[in-house]
Design brief:
Length: about 150
């Protein structure tokens, strides 16, 4: 466990050399989760711009708009289960568009179904269970940023 913490700490410190996402799109229908992610991310790094949407249709509208302006997010964090459009539907729409398809996506969910986990592994999408406490959430956000940093260095 200590080795994992050390690795995460080193990865997080290395990403502070501008190898971290500048704009993150977070899509979740739960207002509490939106607030907590925003608060946790700002406490970790106030330079990252977080754009949040409460449903997939608005998220896709945002992505289309940012595609036109050239300010695409560097990372998309999706809640699994949402009304109107779930993570699968959003993912499929993003992957259809060559300008959007290279944006890394992370699924952030309350529970992991192993069939879902297998599906997302095959799609090379990371799936993370939402933590129960704020401190765990901050650590989770650091891991997400570290994961993104690794993707950027490949």
């Amino acid at each position: 466990m200590a080795l994992i913490s050390l690795l995460i700490s080193r990865l997080y410190n290395s990403m502070m050399t501008n190898n971290y996402p500048k704009i993150i799109l977070h899509v979740d229908d739960d207002a509490d989760d939106l607030f907590l992610i925003d608060y946790a991310l700002k406490s970790i790094d106030s330079f990252i711009v977080l754009h949040q949407e409460q449903n997939g249709k608005k998220a896709l509208d945002f992505l289309r708009q940012t595609k036109l302006s050239g300010n695409l997010p560097s990372l998309i964090i999706l809640d699994m289960n949402m009304p109107a459009m779930n993570a699968h539907e959003i993912y499929k729409e993003v992957k259809k568009d060559p300008a959007l398809s290279e944006i890394p996506i992370i699924i952030f969910t309350t529970s992991i179904d192993y069939r879902e986990e297998d599906y997302w592994k095959n799609e090379e999408v990371r799936m993370i269970t939402k933590p129960a406490s704020f401190d765990e959430l901050k650590e989770c956000i650091k891991k997400i940023l570290a994961y993104y940093s690794i993707l950027q260095s490949l």
